[in-house]
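in:
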């Protein structure tokens, strides 16, 4: 968004998006926007108990921010339309929302004087991915991963441009042909259940409609999926697999992948 002068050791940081990465850097903001429903993600609850809520992502409350007297405002350029107003309150740095989450981490670290910490986090993350690849061995290229989300009234397939999809792609795990697309997601109907096929299915849950989930999992086409028959359907959290877009969430996704693909000693022919 141009240039801004930031304090060397900001004490009153406000976050308007990308909260996961700020917390990963060891920074405790004084306030942040939330996800829908005016809540912070469950996996960040222990780190957000003292944070003041200043609206939801994309709709920050400028009056509340002004009242808090921050010395640095961090966010994403999704709020570019109010950048001038934010800059009048405090130095403001907005990362490029079209970039991958790792670049958000790097930009925030630069503004916070935590570049070395960000480099260590990224190095550790890359090492974990390499370890996962090594432990999977020949299974890596043979294990098609299906990402299925039940959220509210929708059933969605998450693809390569989604958060979890980008991690799966980075690792090198293949996707079923229908899901191997450079887009975030597609909503599907009952007759498209066969498109959920994979060697493993990660069933992403959170904020879902139980009746809709039951409708799908009781459907005859669902029971015909090989992963369902072989009991290779694993339930994971939408907070981390879909919504986190940050280092803490990424490591949580890796935790699940280690748990279900390594610790369970999954083997495919």
């Amino acid at each position: 968004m141009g240039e801004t002068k930031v304090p060397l050791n900001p004490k009153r940081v406000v976050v308007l998006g990308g909260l996961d990465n700020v917390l990963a850097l060891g920074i405790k903001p004084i306030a942040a926007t939330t996800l829908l429903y005016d809540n912070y993600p469950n996996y960040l609850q222990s780190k957000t108990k003292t944070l003041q809520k200043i609206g939801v992502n994309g709709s920050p409350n400028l009056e509340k921010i002004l009242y808090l007297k921050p010395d640095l405002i961090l966010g994403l350029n999704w709020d570019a339309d109010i950048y001038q107003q934010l800059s009048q309150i405090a130095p403001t740095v907005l990362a490029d929302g079209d970039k991958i989450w790792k670049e958000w981490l790097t930009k925030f670290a630069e503004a916070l004087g935590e570049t070395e910490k960000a480099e260590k986090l990224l190095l550790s993350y890359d090492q974990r991915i390499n370890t996962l690849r090594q432990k999977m061995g020949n299974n890596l290229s043979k294990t098609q991963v299906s990402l299925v989300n039940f959220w509210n009234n929708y059933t969605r397939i998450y693809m390569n441009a989604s958060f979890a999809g980008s991690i799966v792609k980075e690792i090198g795990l293949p996707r079923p042909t229908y899901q191997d697309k450079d887009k975030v997601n597609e909503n599907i109907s009952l007759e498209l259940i066969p498109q959920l096929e994979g060697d493993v299915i990660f069933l992403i849950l959170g904020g879902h409609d139980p009746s809709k989930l039951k409708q799908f999992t009781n459907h005859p086409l669902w029971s015909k999926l090989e992963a369902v028959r072989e009991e290779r359907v694993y339930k994971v959290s939408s907070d981390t697999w879909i919504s986190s877009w940050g280092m803490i969430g990424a490591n949580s996704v890796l935790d699940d992948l280690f748990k279900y693909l390594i610790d369970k000693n999954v083997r495919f022919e």
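note: The two ends are 52 Å apart (CA to CA).
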